[in-house]
Amino acid sequence: MADQIEPKVIEWRRHFHQHPELSNREFETAKYIEKYLRGLGLEVQTGIARTGVVAVLDSGKPGPVVALRADMDGLPVPEQNDLPFRSRAKGEYNGNEVPVMHACGHDTHMAMLMGAAKILTDMKSELTGKVKFIFQPAEEGAPAGETGGAEVMVQEGVMKGVDTVFGLHISSDTDVGVVEYRHGGIMAAVDPFKIVIKGKQAHGAYPWLSVDPVTTAAQVIMGLQTIVSRELPLVDDAAVITVGSIHGGNRSNIIPSEVELVGTIRTLDEDMREDLHAAVHRKAKGIADSMRAEAEVTLPLDYSYPVTYNDPALMDKMLPTLKRTAGEENVEEVKAVTGAEDFSFFQKEVPGLYLFVGGKPLDLPKEEAPPHHTPDFKIDESGMKLGVKLLTNLTLDYMKLHK
Q1: Roughly what angle, to the nearest 10 degrees, separates helices 27-39 and 2-18?
Q2: CB 179 within 8 A of CB 253
Q3: Which residues contact 45 (CB under 8 A, 6 or more apart)?
Q4: The model's pTM
Q5: Are 168 and 278 in contact (CB under 8 A)?
Q6: Active centre residues (catalytic)
Q7: Which residues, in sequence order, are CB contacts of 9 under 8 Å at separation 6+?
Q8: β partners of residue 190
């Protein structure tokens, strides 16, 4: 059945790729998905978390409720591929017109879930329970001043009555045909932060008249790096503190009154996460105080994702499905990554699994694979068939195990 629907899956993916939309602006994408799902005869809800679409397949027989999720949003990235269906779309991001591209594979995620929806609908008589198909907006983060994504979908009741949830992510540097899994944390919690260093402005020629927030900010940045290297048990799990933005001053001969630092924290353990948060406050304020400045710390800044956590018992239970579907030689246990996913909000409600599916051509060296979130991001469309099979078989096998 996956073989038969593969041409349609590729067609859907190319449509989404050519017409990407930014987070919380997936209006046409949602209409396209809604029309398709209604055509399958499913019960469809729209407008969830602004633009989300949810459909329910009810077998009419008692059994578990299995949720399957795909994300919908593109990124403000200019596509540099020469694909005939490359994106030329524009959108508005933080008040500016920007190019838009599916530079992370969300176009493939939607297409794979649509394929699974078709197969499972055709197999309705063999199902027990219900399947909930979740097409989620704003996985990449809502625009400034807005909320969105999985957290809002949960708040609006999407996970009520659900017993388990499965999700996939295409990977541009993993071979086509391979599925990657991990027990426990597979992707990091993410906590953006802002530190404002306040000092005293003065002429650059007379720094002793200032309380220099630039020098203080430099010491704070270096001090933050010692938290991970000197205060956290890295033999247990990884952690990252990155300062990605520094703003302050406007002339070479003026010491400004304040400097703003913006960064991100990534952790894979909840206790380490709490310790790191406390340490950021302590380090920033302590260093600033030693320099006669002040530090205002906002943590988290505007959003926060938990650890993407694969329930170990569920992983054990469904591992045979992965091996049967992909072939045992194509199922690989991997280390956690410090990227983040708001799929984690669904997993906080019910046990769930998040997996990586290969999208790299077999003849392309791994080191040459175009990274996610870049203008030349590209995947091999033949990898989507395994994703369709996995979503379908995980649903079928979970239902058999929980009649």
Answers
A1: 160
A2: no
A3: 53, 54, 55
A4: 0.92
A5: no
A6: 305, 381
A7: 111, 112, 114, 115, 384, 385, 388
A8: 266, 305
C-alpha span between 177 and 373 (Å, rounded): 22
Distances (CA, A) of 20 to 97, 99, 174, 320: 14, 10, 24, 36
- β-bridge partners, 184: 310
Q: Which of 8, 31, 16, 18 is nearest to 106 (CA)?
A: 16
Secondary structure, 3-state, 350-372: CCEEEEEEEEECCCCCHHHCCCC
178 φ/ψ angles, rounded to the nearest 5 degrees: -100, 140
| β-bridge partners, 74 | none
H-type alpha helices, 105-212: 106-122, 150-155
Please state the rounded mean pLDDT for residues 75-90.
97
The two tokens of residue 189 are 């919690």
Rg value, the chain, Cα: 23
| Three-state SS at 241 | strand
Which tokens sit at 284?
């920033």
Per-residue pLDDT tens over the stretch 99-119: 999 999 999 999 999 999 999
Q: How far is CA 109 from CA 78, 113, 267, in A?
A: 20, 6, 25
- Percent of residues, the chain, with pLDDT higher than 90: 96
Range list of H helices, 198-335: 213-231, 270-290, 312-326
Closest CA to 296 of 390, 213, 203, 172: 213
How far apart are the C-alpha atoms of 283 and 329, rounded to whole Å?
Answer: 47
> For residue 197, which of 273, 129, 288, 116 has the smallest C-alpha distance?
288
Q: Considering Cα of 194, then 200, then 201, then 207, what sign does the dihedral take?
A: negative
